Amino acid sequence: KNVLVLHGPNLNLLGSREPAVYGRVTLVEIDQKLAQFAREQGAELSAFQSNAESALIERIHAARLDGTTFIVINPAAFTHTSVALRDALAAVGIPFIEVHLSNVFARESFRHESYFSDIAVGIISGLGATGYELAVQYALQQP
Ligand code: DQA
Hints:
The chain has 143 residues and is of the alpha/beta class. The protein has helices at 19-22, 27-40, 53-63, 83-92, 130-141; strands spanning 2-7, 44-49, 70-74, 96-100, 122-125. The longest helix has 14 residues, at 27-40.
């Protein structure tokens, strides 16, 4: 099993970015914990963050050829804007879970719309960094 974790724009600032909304944990800490969990399960995990839509799209395209079996993605603000990122996930056909640290439905109405949810295996929103862990756990449970 080979899980790819993707983080969208501004998530590199986790830890200091709006801590009341997103918590104090940093992206490095999140990724390290996920990598350790995957290792314990005998699986591969790689993580990638970008503030650029194009870089995220290119990474998804590369996943077609690098053995990725499952994607866990927090598209961040691109959740609400990016048809291109949605199309990239649809194009590669790799199953994915959409994760949000915050409960997007408890926030501004523009965050209630997602270009990803209807083609995702599932969605986790509002559980903080634990959401990523649960998503990876699910991915590693798949046959
Ligand atoms: C987010 C929610 C988005 O609305 C926001 O633009 C983000 C982070 C979250 O993890 O809660 O950047 O995806």
